[in-house]
Amino acid sequence: MERSKQKQMSQNENETDAAINGHFDGRAKVPGWSAGGAAGTPSTVPSSSVMESWREERTRSLEDNEMSLPSIAAAYTTILRGLGEDPQRQGLLKTPWRAATAMQFFTKGYQEKIIDVLNDAIFDEDHDEMVIVKDIDMFSMCEHHLVPIFGRVHIGYLPNKRVLGLSKLARIVEIYSRRLQVQERLTKQIAVAITEALQPAGVGVVIEATHMCMVMRGVQKMNSKTVTSTMLGVFREDPKTRDEFLSLIRS
Amino acid sequence: MEYQKAAELNGLCNGKIVTEYLCRNGFSELTVDTKKVAVQHKHETSRKEAEDESRLPALEAAYSTILRGLGENTDRQGLLKTPLRAAKAMQFLTKGYHETIYDILNDAIFDEDHEELVIVKDIDMFSLCEHHLVPFFGKVHIGYLPSKKVVGLSKLARIVEIYSRRLQVQERLTKQIAMAISEALQPVGVAVVIEAAHMCMVMRGVQKMNSRTVTSAMLGAFREDPKAREEFLALTKSAQ
């Protein structure tokens, strides 16, 4: 039932904004956020319409999880047999259930909404210097091969009189990374979520990750890392701000 | 035979070759039948590849079910061919089932008058946890004291590949590598140390990012003589 709603929703959005992976891809829904920059202009958007876009995120519930567990476990049993293993041997007896639960954990980002995580932790502070939280460990799943991606996320933002609880930045990372992802999209979703929550003067997100699909198979390059970044607002327009951010995350 | 039991535990013996090899205790008996076995093996490999292809649709269907069960929309662009890619990836990650020690070691055992420790260390290893189907990876250090027979160095890494590209438990993996070398070369001693990070512990469950699991297998002189073991461990300790 929920899924057909999602399908309908995604079909509607394909015509306009192409909501991918449960979130509007890339559009910060704050008017006045044009290329000209809105540094210093307080947002006049009533908070409810900003929250609207959050509400449209896909949610999966714990009941959904429980109901789909048997079919996912059966699929894993098929996979074990298809690989030529014996699903009845001692080490593999409960593996389909463990693997299914593990996979549901790795995609638990679908069960969570930004609005729940952030609801209370936005504070009015008279602070307009850069705030950075770096070296946030991130674990995600490659949506093309269903193989892990892991790395570090560095987030910086220039508050506009509103600051966010620091762990909430890490929780935003968790919500978006615990999904079937593409690193570019993940970076953007984190940046857009912070933008929509705080309306800061600027946001910068850098992710440096290792893709197991490149390390364990395919080209098999052990030491390769993929770096993606999203700079919004002042970080995009002002090179000095961006430089400060990049040098602070490097140190 | 312990080795046979250990190898049977880890699955699949598709081809007759493998069971024949496992049933015999050593290498010498097989050299007589080299040609016949080699021809048989070629048929086996192509049969296994064909088998892989034929199993792909079932794996694809299973992955589609999983994606749908997780609440994803399998028609979106990024996921259209994911079942196929994931199935092929999984087959690659378990390709060790198709390979046998015999094929890779066949020609690379040489008679050398060398009786000192030979170590190949920092061999990158990638395997799949058989309990959660999630990767674990790390480094393998292998050392052996030859008894007039040495093996081509890359063959040690290939032995690691064969046994690690399976659904594994780190303890069993360590033992299988040690036993394989022991059976192939009959050396004075074999030592294998594996240090790995388990994603099932890092990405989920307890979520301890920096934990590492270390297992070792010491056979022959490495088990009996503490000095030999010490030398091996000292030489494989990397400056971290």
Describe the structure.
The complex is a heterodimer of chains A (251) and B (240). Chain A has helices at 2-15, 47-55, 62-82, 95-106, 114-118, 166-177, 183-198, 212-215, 234-237, 239-250; strands at 122-124, 131-142, 148-158, 162-164, 180-181, 202-211, 226-233. Chain A is of the alpha+beta class and 251 residues long. Chain A folds into two domains: 62-110, GTP cyclohydrolase I, N-terminal domain (GTP Cyclohydrolase I, Chain A, domain 1), CATH 1.10.286; 115-249, 2-Layer Sandwich (GTP Cyclohydrolase I, domain 2), CATH 3.30.1130. In chain A, the strands form two sheets. A five-stranded mixed sheet of chain A has the order 5-2-3-6-7, sandwiched between helices. In chain A, strands 1-4 form a two-stranded antiparallel sheet. In chain A, strand 2 (131-142) and strand 3 form a beta hairpin. In chain A, helix 3 crosses helix 4 (95-106) and helix 6 (166-177) packs antiparallel against helix 7 (183-198). Chain A is globular, with a radius of gyration of 20 Å. By secondary structure, chain B is an alpha+beta fold. Chain B is 50% helix and 20% strand. In chain B, the strands form two sheets. A five-stranded mixed sheet of chain B has the order 5-2-3-6-7, sandwiched between helices. In chain B, strands 1-4 form a two-stranded antiparallel ribbon. In chain B, helix 7 (153-164) packs antiparallel against helix 8 (170-185). The model of chain B is unreliable at 1-9 and 11-34 (pLDDT under 50). The chains are: A alpha+beta (251), B alpha+beta (240). Chains A and B meet through helix 1, helix 3, helix 4 and helix 8 of A and helix 4, helix 5 and helix 9 of B.
